[in-house]
Amino acid sequence: MLAGRTAAQAVSPESRRIRRLPGRLAARLVRWVRRGGLSALIFMIPLLVVFGVFSWWPIARGLVMAFQQTNLVEPAQWVGLDNFRKVLADPLLMVAVRNTAWFALLALIFGYPAPLALAIFVRELRRGRGLFSVLAYLPVVLPPVVAILLWRVFYDASESGLFNTLARAVGLGPFQWLQDPRSAMPSIVLEATWAGAGATMIIYLAALSGVRSDLYEAAEIDGASIWQRIVHVTLPQLRTILLITLLLQIIGTFQVFTEPFLFTGGGPANATTTILMLLYNYAFINGDYGGATALSVLLAIFLGLLSLAYFRLTRGWSTT
Amino acid sequence: MLNRRRTTRAFAALAITTCLTATACSSGSGSQAGGDSAGGVTTIVVGQKPTPDQAAALKTWTDRVAEFEKANPKIKIQGSEYGYDVQTFQADLAAGTLPTVVAIPYTDVQGLIARGQLADITDEVKGSPVGSKINPEVLKIVQDPSGKVFGLPVQAYTMSLDYNRALFKQAGLDPDKPPTTWAEVRTAAKAIADKTGKAGYAMMTTNNTGGWILTAMTYTYGGTIEKVDGSKTVASFNDAPMKNALTQLHQMRWEDNSMGNNFLYNQKQLQQEFAAGNIGMYIGTPGDYRDEVTTMGAKGQDIGVAPLPLDSPDGGTLTGGAVQMFNPKASPEQIAAAVKWAEFFWLKKFTDSDHAISDAKTANADKVYSVGLPTLWLFDAASQAQYNAWIKPYVNTPQANFAPYTKAAPSLKLTVEPPVAAQKVYANLDSVVQTVLTKKDADLDQLLSTSSKTVDGLLAN
Fold first, then answer.
1. Which positions in chain B touch A91 (Cβ < 8 Å)?
2. Where do transmembrane segments lie in this chain (chain A) (predicted)?
3. Which residue of chain A is at minimal alpha-carbon distance from B438?
């Protein structure tokens, strides 16, 4: 009896709750609207539409296309992993991977410290800080295509080329710059460093302004030199931002396309053919969208794993 | 709190689903063929409508449309300024924004045929009074190995040796007697480089143009690029003709130093340098004259056009041309209407005096077209003489400068591009050319052997 009553009592409130559900939902909805939920959603809609149409949908379609063969006229055929097999068997893939890694390494060695050095230099200036900031940022203002076309002229391999004239003044050259497979990639990295340093420098300058001045004062009282202040105060204080810019740079360098495309078209002798250039050729020269998307999926997976490993390795170094 | 999160997630999911569904639906709507057929009237969209700055050409185009629609009341023409772009073509094809008919460059035709991205117009061309008269050698440009026709050639040419007559004079060479063999090209290039300091000879090398030009050179030595045996195609360039071509380049680059300092030219970049007077000779097309004079600032009097040098009795000259393509998503009625339009607008001017004269007059008036450029005639020789007489008053190009080419053109042995995966083969050969021009110690035998194996792999797939 007791058990029966308990059972009845247990069922009865549940059924009452179910009966009251529409009312509760309506009340919750009203509360949600009053608390600004609807406004937030309305504000989100343009963003969702833009991301949906221009980012998520293409990503989803790209993922599907990596397993298909299509000429964009007839219905696409499912080909399983054939596109991946084809891309992995392409002899140019290893060349492109090697070139991209070479670009990334050169950019890391020469391109990564440059904006930091610039930022510290500008920060240390007593006068003319604004002027130097503008000068350093100026290359960022130039459209990349214009800057690259300009540098193509600078890299003229004849003796009368601008850089060769400068080199001759100090007893060097003439160099072949972009016309030699050995010097083509370093030449591209040099321009890329020049073009990109200003934007990163601004980030570092902003971060430097957040470093407490009493730390520098304390270091100065302890007799620290400029170099010691940089090593023991500036760099530790900037390490979170440094780790993020490093990751962004690595991801960016693995996606390098504009510079080799416009400077050399991937030459000479494939010396500057990068992964993204190979991907471009698959899609736009050969019309092989399956191969192109398969390669982009492989690149995305690699960069995802790289980012994950990077975050795990550097978890302890960050201040946040 | 948890419930609120769930509600928010539900709404977000709903919004995303709505967006994606809307996108999916929108991508499936709209015309997929650049036109439609309704109520017995077939509407087609035709590309290359002249832009407003080409006033005379636009007026002629508008008049032609009116004339065509009057003669064909069941066909309605919609104009589009669309011009072929290799980077957007695939997207336009997928999105259904491609016109029903538009011009494409000859070099892309075979790749598009192989991918099934051009409409089959065999019946329309063979059944038409104009199309059926097109020179069969020229028609090969737009045919697949089985002989089906996938485009309408509206202009044809052979590759040519384009040269700077002013630099020839400065170097003590006779501009009316351009080189006819590769040995003469080498001598002339060295003379130009030594006497003027400019590049005697230059070559396109990037964006697959290096492979394209190397193919043209190899043909002049009597070589081939591919050998088709039934359903199997293999590379056939690992032999003497291509090695001779590469040796010629290597000698000019490293022994004579007559090729300048830039070995990474695409077509436009090389044309710009040529137009600026910095290059003595290059392999191009007679039609390059137009861009070089009308948009790149070259003087027409300085440009000479000669046939390709030939170093073998088997030597052939690579052909090219302008081709009208038809949207593969168009209906049979639209294809038939579009072929009719293309023949009317692009070919009638070669067989009808009114069309020939008004077309030449318009081109002359707009100053952006060159009238009288040498071409490979599409029909029989008698019609060519008649056409030349019609347009003579409007010719605005130095005909004497083209004489070396026009005299030789009728007797040239014509060759077509490699039939299978030409662009992929060219991409591979780009690297071969670039290696020869940028590595002094390049091993030609090794290069050819490696490239041949790679191309065999490409062709097997």
1. 454, 457
2. 38-59, 101-122, 134-154, 184-207, 238-257, 289-311
3. A180
Same domain, B295 and B356: no
Least confident of A193-197, B8-12, B97-101: B8-12
Which structural domain range is residue B212 located in? Answer: 160-318+408-460
Distance between CA atoms of residues B156 and B268, nearest Å? 20
Asked if residue B186 and residue B60 are part of one domain, the reply reads no
Same domain, B423 and B277: yes
Instruction: Give residue-wise pLDDT tens across range B432-447.
Output: 999 999 999 999 999 9
Indicate if B265 and B414 belong to the same structural domain.
Answer: yes
- B12–A contact, CB cutoff 8 A: yes
The pTM assigned to this predicted structure is 0.82
Residue A19: predicted pLDDT? 61
**Is the torsion defined by CA of B217, B220, B222, B225 positive or negative?**
positive
Chain B, window 82-111: residues with a beta carbon less than 8 angstroms from a chain A beta carbon: 86-87, 90, 93-94, 111
All domains in chain A, ordered by first residue: 14-65 (no CATH), 82-314 (1.10.3720.10)
Closest among B52, B187, B144 to B422, alpha carbons compared: B144
Nearest to B431 among A71, A270, A285 (CB): A270
Do B296 and B312 reside in the same domain of the chain? yes
Confidence of residue B56 (pLDDT cuts 50, 70, 90): confident
| Nearest by CB: A285 against B260, B423, B431 | B423
* CB burial of residue B249 (10 Å; 0-12, 13-18, 19+): buried
CATH number of the domain at B106, please.
Answer: 3.40.190.10
CB B68 within 8 A of CB B77: yes
The two tokens of residue A124 are 């240390």
* Domain shared by B251 and B138, yes or no: no
Chain A contact for B327, CB < 8 A? no
Which amino acid makes up residue A152? R
Interchain CB distance below 8 Å, A269 and B435: yes
